[in-house]
Design goal:
The protein has helices at 47-56, 60-68; strands at 16-17, 31-32, 38-40, 43-45. By secondary structure, the chain is of the alpha+beta class.
Length: 69
């Protein structure tokens, strides 16, 4: 499946979806090529969500589990 990068003006078709999932189990929906993606804790995120993941750190999955209760 070909996925186009979500970066405005980028036409790369080698994009990967952002790994971010919120406490309501909603995915980010964005996809980013190797030039526009951000990495944190061995996963790929968009510009917006990588900052959240870096701020929360490795406790991110534990916090989303608590939010679902």
């Amino acid at each position: 499946m070909t996925i186009v990068c979500s970066e405005p003006g980028c036409h790369s078709t080698a994009a990967v979806r952002c790994s971010y999932v919120d406490s309501h189990l909603r995915n980010c929906g964005g996809a980013w090529c190797k030039d526009h993606r951000q990495m944190a804790f061995n996963a790929m995120y968009c510009h917006r969500h990588v900052e959240i993941i870096q701020a929360v750190g490795t406790n991110y999955s534990a916090l989303t589990m608590l939010a679902r209760r």
